[in-house]
Design goal:
It comes from Prochlorococcus marinus (strain MIT 9301). This is (S)-ureidoglycine aminohydrolase cupin domain-containing protein. Pfam families: Cupin_3. It is a single chain. By secondary structure, the chain is mainly β. The chain has a single domain, classed as Jelly Rolls, CATH 2.60.120.10. It contains one helix and seven strands. The longest helix has 7 residues.
């Protein structure tokens, strides 16, 4: 299972998907396990995090990245700089 990152996310994609109307999630620097029962697409507005997947893949996500987490992904989040993101669950 691969995490897909488009960087930087273009303004046209933000408008096309209506990303600015999506809910916002924020998290202070921390480390935690996370499971994605559904696909999630998110736009990182601020901050940075390192994602370690169960397959041993490591991804660094940061402000400006459009990130797609596949359904069924188990991973560890390490938020290194307070993160803020718009997100949408499901297809």
């Amino acid at each position: 299972m691969k995490v897909l990152i488009s960087s930087p996310c273009s303004a046209s994609v933000i408008i096309q998907y209506g990303i600015k109307s999506w809910p916002i999630w924020e998290c202070e620097p921390s480390k935690f396990q996370w499971n994605y029962p559904d696909k999630e697409i998110c736009l990182i507005i601020e901050g940075q995090a390192k994602i370690n997947t169960q397959n041993g893949d490591i991804y660094v996500i940061k402000a400006g990245d459009l990130v797609e987490f596949p359904a069924g992904l188990n991973c560890e989040w390490e938020v290194t700089k307070t993160i803020k993101k718009h997100y949408r669950l499901g297809s």
